[in-house]
Input
Amino acid sequence: MIDISPLQADPSGNEAADCIAAMHAACIETGFFVVLGHGLDDEIISLFAGVRRFFELPQAAKERTPRINRYGYIPHRPSAIDISRASDNVEYLDIGLHAEVDVPAVAGLEPAVRRYQQAAISVAMTVLGALAAALGAQPEFFAKTMVNPQCRLRFLHYPAVQPDSHGLLPVPNPPHTDYGLITLLATDGIPGLEVKPVDSEWIPVEAPEGSLVINLGDMLARWSNDRYRSTPHRVVGPAAGDRVSIPFFINPDPGTVVDCIPSCITEGRPQRYDQITAGTFLTQRIDGSTEPYVDPYEGPARQANASPAPGYDGATS
Output
């Protein structure tokens, strides 16, 4: 757990320096860390209340929010038997920043969504400023790319499941990496998220209710010339009860040029990637069978041109 409150209270103080060092180490090792002191406590409580009210609606009411241009509602399909398909054991709803789809008419949901989006973007900017400084760039390096950020707020509902005959829980959300810049994940404290560091088995992520899990996407790994990691993760079906989680995918302006940060290029680590715009990078990672902003994980070494799992809808975390 990393308390990020010093980043806002006294950015130049010793406690802030310790916080930045802890995040930097986590980004080098796994690209995952859990934060407290983010200041979003009230926004998270209000948002979860509204999201739960949405998922408690009759199915027909939920489906009044159609899927349009990869925004909107994807239903749970409990009759499916292929648990490698993400949407077989999870339902979800995607909301953008710019009215890409109407927020469902659930009491208190739209104001909670808009408050959370703005507050969470502020937290993301604080974290990204710290990481930019840790990488040797100016603290405002990433903030300058966020004039018109491309952000997606996703509500996920995982129904409780039973272990199979071998005592194993199904994996409703197959292994993948997020392929954008950074993801902020709010959870209800129910376990299920697991990460797979290099040369390691799957490790559960302990994230108490009210905390935020922050993970780096493939774009930030590329920007850092792979000094930072984008690590495969998955969700194991909850056995103790339903699980709700809310990832917020943060991406820069589409025209932003993603080029390896100069301080991340050394004699021992030459530049690994050509420059590319953020919009082109994301577009290249999306096809007809995937959803922003996730990339199916193809085993011990992710294959650069691998096809996604059939029917994989990309629900994450």
About this structure: The CA atoms of residues 1 and 34 lie 5 Å apart. The mean pLDDT is 84. The first helix runs from residue 5 to 9.
